[in-house]
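fyi for ur records
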Amino acid sequence: MEDVQNLASDLIPIREMLIVGDLRPLYIAHLAFNWDDDAIEPPVPAGLRDQHYALDRLRSFYEIDPDLLSVASEASPERNKSASDDSMIDNWMASLSEAELAENLRRCLTEPKLAASQLLTTIRTQASEAPNLGTGERTLGQLREAVSKIEAERLRIQLAEAAKRSAEQKAAAEKALEKQLASIAENPELTIGRIDSAISERNRPAYQRAAKQLGLLAMACGKPMADAKADAIRQKYPTRSALSSELKKEGF
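which gave:
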């Protein structure tokens, strides 16, 4: 109800639908207000799967799950092609006498703001065919159960896609690590230099980087080389407890 003015404007076509016998708004309202799972749905109106902004606004206002309307529309027949206003007006005029035409013309001239719209509504109502309805045979519980299956399948697909992305990311990370370790093994002195440079910054984040680099050195060149470097660091910096703590966290 935060956007009442726009909502009211968007729902204006609903009135015209009902006037010409389009029962889609009533079917949507039925879905919104009938919560008896054992109740049989009403006859399904034609064109329920057709897009219409007013019907979509009505569905949204009633907080109906789009999947529920989609499942319901499976039993909806195709809508009959409606005649244009021009052809309806021509047919209607042809059915009137000269006196009736003159009277309607006089009304349009004397009541220009009201008569024309009333006449057009009358013409559309008279021209409308009997509603094309599909037989309502499903219970509302069956409709909602079908929605649950759709949601479960959607969740299964989402989880499968997430697992696939995770596996791809893991494989990419492993490939990047292999490349990094190969580079370290080819020239371990560069990594040792990065370790010493980080330690010289004398702060915990830098010590953490040094310990991580030492761990990579162990993976690339073997634990003995990394252990020897860790022992040399402790001997050189015996009072730096933060440094010693970070090395211990990495297993040195």
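The first strand starts at residue 44 and ends at 45. thats all i got for now
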